[in-house]
Specification:
The protein is α/β, with parallel strands linked by helices. The protein is built from nine helices and six strands; from the N terminus they run ααβααβαβααββααβ. Strands 1-2 form a two-stranded parallel sheet.
Length: 203
């Protein structure tokens, strides 16, 4: 929105910002409630850039319905996910994947495990079924040529012997512009519930 403002030399109109949102921001979330929270947050952001007189002068203006059209209630590892069904590709992919290993007993990990089995046949290795490592590979499938991803993953993927195959394949496949190690700040940034410390992540 700020870039559009600079380019036009004036605040973008409501319809222009609505199109900007509908055409440029997409997301995938397994938790349906989180989908609605995300959509609400985006609408609030749009609203924060509008002046009340403009809304009053455009009584027919309607905020977009984002869940189902931009924010998808789906599993990122499921090939039926609309992102991949529609073959959408992005300049930027941002994410905070789970910092855990996929579990055969966990039904919610079914698509991730299926994806890992298929990916391993094309040398996209994942150490100890790490969901965050798998997510970094999967994010690449959603990027345009020359696109960038910014992901929050476990720092241990950079050093664990179990992730050596992952590192070898991933760094040979993608150009990694920057790694920021946040381990020293984990107590500040990643405090878990009931005071439990999260494991050390890296971005």
């Amino acid at each position: 929105i700020e870039r559009l403002w600079r380019e036009q030399g004036e605040r973008p109109k409501a319809e222009a910002m609505k199109r900007l949102l509908q055409e440029n921001i997409f997301g995938v979330e397994k938790d349906q409630e989180a989908c609605f929270i995300t959509a609400f947050s985006l609408i609030l952001t749009l609203l924060s850039h509008l002046e009340p007189p403009e809304l009053q002068a455009n009584a027919d203006f309607q905020f977009p319905t984002l869940v189902g059209s931009n924010i998808y209630h789906a599993d990122f590892f499921d090939d039926a996910c609309p992102i991949f069904q529609k073959e959408l590709r992005f300049d930027w992919v941002m994410g905070n994947p789970p910092w855990e290993g996929a579990d055969e007993r966990n039904e919610s990990h079914r698509y991730a495990l299926d994806w890992m089995r298929k990916a391993s046949k094309s040398s996209r290795e994942v150490g100890e079924r790490r969901l965050d490592e798998a997510f970094t590979w999967r994010a690449g499938d959603a990027l345009k040529e020359g696109g960038y991803a910014g992901l929050l993953v476990m720092a241990t993927s950079l050093v664990n012997s179990s992730s050596s195959g992952y590192r070898k394949g991933f760094f040979a496949t993608f150009y990694v512009k920057r790694i920021t190690n946040l381990s020293n700040f984990m107590r500040i940034l990643f405090m878990g519930p009931e005071g439990k410390r999260a494991e050390a992540p890296a971005a």
